[in-house]
Write a structure and sequence with these properties.
Layout (H helix, E strand, L loop, with lengths): L1 E7 L10 H26 L4 E9 L8 E13 L2 E15 L3 E10 L5 H10 L10
Antiparallel strand pairs: 1-5, 2-3, 3-4, 4-5
Amino acid sequence: MATVYIYPAPPLTSVGSAPEIVASAKTALCKKEYEMRKREIVDAHSGARLIEERDVPAPQFGVRKQGKMAAFEFADRLRGQPQLLHSEFRLFCFVSEKWTLAYRFSSPRSVDATGAIAAFMMQLPWTLPAVTQ
């Protein structure tokens, strides 16, 4: 199962700040957003266990944006059946300077969805303007 979320990036006000100050503020805001999304998963799924975290490149060729990925395991229902699940999400902040893109993938833990997730990420183009940063 895959879900894609697109919503406004965290608010950032900058009046004449140096580019490195803006970049640092964006990094801090994105980290806060990432931690909040991880907490939502743990709060929604009793017994959720974080099993992996890492930086991930943007899925689009030529886009130099880094994102974060977190993977969890927990027991829940999928398609009405109780089972152990593997669930991961990927978060990209300030896409086209004003959007956050989040992807959530869940599958039975017994299924290796790595290839399907990679294919999905590469085939779903970002159509927002100026997504080269």
